[in-house]
Amino acid sequence: MSQRYSDLMDKVYLLAMIVAGLSLLVMTIIIPIGIFSRYVLNRGESWPEPVAIICMVTFTFIGAAVSYRAGSHIAVNMLTDRLPQAIQRLCARTVDLLMLLISLVMFYYSFYLCADLWEQPVAEFPILTSGQTYLPLPVGAILLILFVVERLLFGSQENRPIVLLGNHG
């Protein structure tokens, strides 16, 4: 069971990494287009800013889940590194449980935020509603929940081959 779950999480991780990477790529392409349009063509387009913001939100929340599974998130472990091994494990378990709680709260509130704003159009980008633009929040929360549960049940996954992809040092 643990191997099947971890294999499924590998696929979810890879998909999330691709989505986060593509959103970062699109954001870095869109911003110069908006700047060029405004300052060179003297014609400020309305769509680059909301698209860039959507990409940034997507990259942030999906990318946060990816970095959590990879163990590359921001962590201050100056104190815990000096503790006995048993206390270190207890601290790590406590952090994971708190992360699960935070992810559940984030999912709850972001789900209702999306639901409440689902019909409200975005003035600068009318093909999307405000609720749709906030979808990366509950999706990122679900990914975090899945990755935290995996870590709680099966330990750290930062040494899996898919997670080490691209690490050369």
UniProtKB/TrEMBL annotation:
GO terms for molecular function: transmembrane transporter activity. It is a multi-pass membrane protein. GO terms for biological process: C4-dicarboxylate transport. The keyword Transport applies. It comes from the Bacteria. Belongs to the TRAP transporter small permease family. This is TRAP transporter small permease protein.
